[in-house]
Design a protein that fits this description.
Layout lengths: L7 H9 L5 E3 L2 E7 L3 H18 L4 E5 L2 E6 L10 H12 L2
Antiparallel strand pairs: 1-2, 2-4, 3-4
Helix pairs in contact: 2-3
This protein binds ligand H2B.
Ligand H2B binds next to loops.
């Protein structure tokens, strides 16, 4: 899928449709909380397979039942792109 940097309007529109997501340090950010470590891991595996299919990979960190996610597009100088929004949507769908 072609990737392009989002302009301010596109970014705002995307955020309107992504519950709990914000822009932090120039990246699309959300902290997910699960009922258990196993559920967090299961979600991460599902998302990892979807991310690899997209050829677009998250920066994320797991501690017990929490997963902190930061999405940016390295190939565009760490800008937020349409692919970051697609990956964020896939993360929401995988919950
Ligand atoms: N993931 C993210 N988040 N940003 C990228 O620019 C990116 C990626 N580029 N995954 C992909 C891999 C690129 O390196 C490969 C060669 O397509």
């Amino acid at each position: 899928m072609a990737r392009h940097k989002l302009n301010d309007e596109e970014l705002q529109q995307a955020l309107n449709g992504l519950s709990g997501w914000s822009v932090q340090d120039g990246k699309l950010h959300k902290e997910f909380k699960f009922a258990s470590f196993a559920q967090a891991m299961g979600w991460m595996v599902t998302v990892a397979l979807a991310a690899d299919k997209l050829d677009h990979h998250p920066e994320w960190c797991n501690v017990y039942n929490r997963v902190t996610v930061d999405l940016a597009t390295h190939d565009l100088g760490n800008a937020i792109s349409n692919l970051d929004v697609t990956l964020a949507q896939k993360m929401e769908e995988a919950i």
